[in-house]
Design brief:
GO molecular function: ATP binding; fructokinase activity
Helix content: 25-40%
Enzyme class: transferase
Shape: globular
Largest sheet: 9 strands, mixed
Pathway: Glycan biosynthesis; starch biosynthesis
Mean pLDDT: 91
Function: May play an important role in maintaining the flux of carbon towards starch formation.
GO cellular component, one term: cytosol
Number of strands: 13
Radius of gyration: 19 Å
Strand content: 15-25%
């Protein structure tokens, strides 16, 4: 098995395994979109009111890959960008953050996706996307790095790559390769309604691959959307409508309040770590990176509630630290920073 370049100490997650089995590879392969976010130079304004914008790397699967690497884990990103300055900049950012980018492809006919994102004064995010079509939507199955996928301990993805062909078929093919190779399939819903043709299309598209995942992360708002308006805090709603017999772990992120977890044997809540928020961008991705970085080298984590709660406390701290700085990728914490805040919080 080829070695994937990782940051130093990539195996230093053994402290969480407590005798849990180590896999041959603790590589997490993240599949999907990477794009440029344009963020207003001042916060609390609409996109129209913003006097200027700063560019920042974005895209949830890429953020997760960097989050894992920053924690000392081993990660790779598979996706397509434009053969343009922005696309090459994104590939370089991954490389600089010790993420294996050998699965990236560059499209000569389509641009790297752009998104204008603003945090309005009520704290809600507003998005305007430029992707008609953007390079990420044009990844073909023939362009997949099959060997890289086969090495994954965890294969992680979202739902944006399910919206348009050919990327949708490529996504499904990549999942099938990973599943056959024994990878854990990890799914972060990451609903972006403006990108879907309609609400029904979004609901159907997101649920179309629900049954195949081993691990799913969903937010309270996404539960309400997917269940047609049900109470996201009701365990019965979650268990009856969203839990599946083959699902190993369902995580519900609750922002500053922490998270809930559901497995086939137990369920519970892990409180959040209190911080002063500056920018919530990337918090959910940092949380996902935190839990996957531990699960990758302790694949039976979901069977032991004590170990799982400890790992989720770690993941909550990853999310909390990310909101204390601007941007997603620059704000992703190191393992030392996480341990430090957990000491203070206990």
């Amino acid at each position: 098995m080829a070695d994937i370049p990782t940051s130093d100490g990539s195996k230093d997650l053994s402290m969480y395994s407590n005798g849990g089995p180590e896999t041959n590879s603790s590589l997490v392969v993240c599949f999907g979109e990477m794009l440029i976010d344009f963020v207003p130079s001042v916060s609390g304004v609409s996109l129209a009111e913003a006097p200027a914008f700063q560019k920042a790397p974005g895209g949830a699967p890429a953020n997760v890959a960097v989050g894992i690497s920053r924690l000392g884990g081993s990660s790779a990103f598979i996706g397509k960008v434009g053969d343009d300055d922005f696309g090459h900049m994104l590939a370089d950012i991954l490389k600089a953050n010790k993420v294996n980018n050998s699965g990236m492809r560059f499209d000569q006919n389509a641009r790297t996706a752009l998104a204008f994102v603003t945090l309005k004064s009520d704290g809600e995010r507003e998005f305007m996307f430029f992707r008609n079509p953007s390079a990420d939507m044009l990844l073909h199955e023939s362009e997949l790095d099959v060997n890289l996928i086969k090495q994954a301990s965890i294969f992680h993805y979202g739902s944006i790559s399910l919206i348009e062909e050919p990327c949708k078929s490529t996504h499904l093919a990549a999942m099938a390769i990973a599943k056959k190779s024994g990878s854990i399939l990890s799914y972060d819903v990451n609903l972006r309604l403006p990108l879907w043709p309609s609400e029904d299309a979004a609901r159907d598209g997101i649920m179309s691959i629900w049954d195949q995942a081993d691990v799913i992360k969903v937010s309270e708002d996404e539960i309400t959307f997917l269940t047609g308006g049900d109470d996201p805090y009701d365990d019965d709603v979650v268990l009856n409508k969203l839990f599946r017999p083959n699902l190993k772990l369902l995580l519900v992120s609750e922002g500053p309040d922490g998270c809930r977890y559901y497995t086939q044997k137990f369920k519970g809540r892990v409180p959040g770590v209190k911080v002063k928020p500056v920018d919530t961008t990337g918090a959910g991705d940092a949380f996902v990176g935190g839990i996957l970085s531990i699960l990758a080298s302790d694949t039976n984590l979901y069977k032991d509630e004590t170990r799982l709660r400890e790992a989720l406390r770690f993941a909550n701290a990853c999310g909390a630290l990310t909101v204390t700085k601007k941007g997603a990728i620059p704000a992703m914490p190191t393992k030392d920073e996480v341990h430090k805040i957990l000491k203070h919080d206990s």
